[in-house]
Specification:
Blueprint (H helix, E strand, L loop, with lengths): L1 H17 L8 E4 L7 E4 L4 H6 L3 E8 L4 E4 L16 H10 L9 E2 L7 H4 L9 E2 H7 L2 H8 L4 H11 L23 H12 L7 H10 L1 E5 L2 E10 L4 E12 L2 E12 L19
Parallel strand pairs: 2-4
Antiparallel strand pairs: 1-2, 3-4, 3-10, 5-6, 7-8, 8-9, 9-10
């Protein structure tokens, strides 16, 4: 796990710091889908994925420059399972449907969880607040709450939010980790932009609660609101880090995605000798 987090963090730092620095191959393409926006394609970033034996893509949106920086033009638009990044919209839906009152709502430990799918994590096997469940990525808590929401309600919110393909047909409660639901890195960033601007179909109160819960780092220079995710569905390790950085100079939205054939996963995600897809 440490290696994957380091790699995701590295890509975010690389994008924030280097941006359009000289000496890098940069292609600028003007697009008209969103007025004023332009795209910079940084194919040079792909070498870092290659060095780590994974496929991947990076998207960043610079609010002040109305500029998209992407590692490619294909993978950034390819949809894959959102894994635990779905906790962002899941929490919004829980709040809006009054499934929970606020981020301090306690989810009762059901007494068991599927350790074959989610690894063995005894430190989270207890009653837990939804805020802590988000921060620790305690998947079982979100699964328990998801069981209370009709799939048609889920689909309606996902369609209204433009959330990927909005496919919630997987029969088990954890349809964001397994099944047909898919979202692209570009769509992840668009969702985050709409959350930031409060343009999603949720109350301002609920969006502000989620923004607060998403804070992963904060200091005098800025705030990072983010969520990681990972699943092993379909024989593929799918890893995410999505979020946005707020500074005095503006806001930067990002989505980093890693994909790896599980036959080559010997070097990542070891947790007490077991694989833990819901770990982050």
């Amino acid at each position: 796990m440490r290696q994957i987090v380091q790699l995701l963090s590295f890509f975010a730092a690389l994008l924030f710091i280097t941006g359009n620095s000289s000496g890098q191959p940069v292609t600028s393409v003007k697009l008209t889908k969103e007025a004023g926006d332009n795209y910079i394609i940084r194919t040079d970033f792909n070498r870092y994925f290659d060095q780590c034996g994974v496929r991947g893509s990076v998207v960043i949106y610079d609010h002040s420059k109305q500029q998209w920086i992407v590692s490619d033009t294909i993978a950034v638009n390819a949809r894959n399972l959102p894994a635990s990044t779905f906790k962002i919209i899941n929490l919004l839906i829980f709040l809006e449907t009054k499934t929970i009152a606020d981020e301090n709502a306690i989810v009762k430990w059901p007494g068991a969880t599927d350790t074959a799918k989610y690894g063995y994590r005894p430190d989270i096997y207890h009653d837990i607040s939804i805020k802590s469940a988000f921060e620790l990525s305690a998947g079982w808590a979100f699964i328990e709450l998801a069981k209370k929401i009709n799939r048609n309600v889920y689909r309606d919110y996902l369609v209204r939010c433009g959330y990927g393909n909005a496919d919630v047909s997987f029969k088990e409660a954890d349809f964001w980790n397994f099944g047909g639901l898919g979202i692209s890195p570009v769509e992840q960033v668009k969702l985050l932009k709409n959350l930031y601007y409060e343009k999603l179909p949720f109350s301002k109160r609920n969006m502000n609660i989620v923004k607060k819960v998403m804070i992963s780092e904060q200091n005098a220079d800025g705030i990072i609101r983010s969520k990681t995710g990972w699943t092993m569905a379909g024989g593929i390790n799918t890893g995410w880090w999505v979020g946005y950085l707020e500074t005095k100079g503006g806001a930067y939205f990002f989505a980093t995605q890693l994909l790896q054939d599980r036959k080559k996963n010997a070097l990542i995600f070891p947790v007490a000798g077991k694989i833990s897809p819901g770990l982050f």
